[in-house]
Amino acid sequence: MKMEKLSNFVQTNKKSIHKLLNRMWYTVVYTRKQLLKTNYKVGKMECAKSGYTLIGEKWRRMWYPYPAFRWEYGEIGCTLDGLFVTFYFEGKTLNEKFIEALINDFGEQIVIYGGKEFLTDFWNPKRGITPKSQEIINNIKKSKEKIIQIDLTFEPWDDIIDRLASTLIISIDTVLKFAFNNKIKLITLE
Known about the structure:
Elements: H1 3-36, E1 46-48, E2 51-55, E3 58-62, E4 66-71, E5 74-79, E6 82-90, H2 96-106, E7 110-114, E8 121-123, H3 133-143, E9 147-154, H4 161-181
Antiparallel strand pairs: 1-4, 2-3, 4-5, 5-6, 6-9, 7-8, 7-9
């Protein structure tokens, strides 16, 4: 997009862009406050950098900051894709039953990808990557990734923020229950 067109776009849509950015930040701040009321360890709010957003079927680098905070097993934040929670798992402890349970419960909202090779998706329905659970486990083993990241993303644009925060916290509880029941090891952040 040429700068003149971009300038016109911003001027025409400034109010909507402003509302979107404020909603992104407020959603994360509110979610953090709700998590502070639980037993989870929560870090401070940050202007996170070096993120990626899915445009079409390609991951695109975000050179701009987005609201996020660390929590004991990963990160919670909001990008143009939506409100997300990232879990860090020890790759060799993942199993088919655990992956199957996550996919059955969260389907389109889940992305499974590498820790080092974070642009390598093992499961991402928005990119058409939807192998069976056993194939996901085999691909993870072949990749030699030690840490596997699993994201759940919820689009907050039309939802009420307190309901969205509740959904995220319930989802965290669900994933952790699946993990503990299947003896899946989470990577704890200090």
